[in-house]
Amino acid sequence: MMKDTSTNKGLAIRSLGIYLPIIVIAIAGIVVGGTDSAAPLSSEIFLASLIVFGVTSALYCFGLHLNTSGNSSATDATQLSAILEAMQMSENAKRILFRDRELELIRKTIQDDIESGDFHAALVLCDQMSNVFGAVEEAEAMRTRVQDIIHQHHEERIREEMGQLSTLLDAHQWVEAYQYAAKMRRLYPESPLLHDLEQRIAGTRTEYGHQLESRFLQAAQNDDIENAMLLLRELDGYLTPEEARRFRDTATSVITTYRESLGARFKMAVSDHRWRDANGFGEEIIRQFPNTKMAIEVANMIETIQVRAVEDEAIS
């Protein structure tokens, strides 16, 4: 009687070990089937948890059966082998099992990356959609969409950056403008908006040089010597030696007239004891015409003039 009871108990435990995983997995299928498809990841986690619970329960019951019967039959070994095989399912098998749900998850993640501006991550997922799941046409369509958005964002950014370049050109900061253009080309090497950037800078610089020429000639013609001299100094940075020959006579006349005018004002300021003005004119002569006889004469007088200028300031 005791033997029959033990036998029946072993059979019951064995049956529980066989059917419990099936029951649990069936419940998992019902639950996941009713889960909202918009949350595929949470459904898969829940399903996996139930499967693990079912397999663990089966192993536990199978162990009890072995302890109860004290014998391991060929059937028991087969059942244990099947359970272990299910636990060791390959990643490829799992991917095939959940293919549709993983594809939907990738689609949603790509959309989230686009909305957050993480375009590189979106392109990586497009490659995964094509290479891993074989959805080549859909992946290519998604990749084209992402690249179009990237191109649009780059164009908007470039147009904003062009304002900074215009500021540099308006200030005639040509070196800084070329450096800025080089930076833009490094950031956006494929943008068609930057193809003629250097030509634009060069053209703007050349046009400004022509404007300086016209203004200089006009000032010289009007005997506006000081303005002509200022323009000549700036124009010097835009002319090649060959171009400078066209202005040589006019420039020589302007320089000579300006030097004589500056010397006359220096002498008049010394004669009137306007030491501060005399000091300013004298320093200008020394700076602009350092190798002339006039500059040497002024240099011999400048120290005395500076002392008297300080004395005048102290008195006043």
Could you describe the 3D structure shown?
It contains 14 helices and no strands. Residues 28-43 have low confidence and may be disordered. It has helices at 2-33, 40-69, 74-87, 91-97, 99-116, 119-131, 136-170, 174-187, 197-221, 225-235, 241-244, 248-271, 275-288, 293-315. It folds into three domains: 2-88; 101-194, no CATH class; 205-315, Serine Threonine Protein Phosphatase 5, Tetratricopeptide repeat, CATH 1.25.40. The chain is elongated and about 125 Å long. 84% of the residues lie in helices and 0% in strands. It has 316 residues and is mainly α. Helix 1 runs antiparallel to helix 2, helix 7 runs antiparallel to helix 8 (174-187) and helix 12 packs antiparallel against helix 13 (275-288). It starts with a helix and ends with a helix.
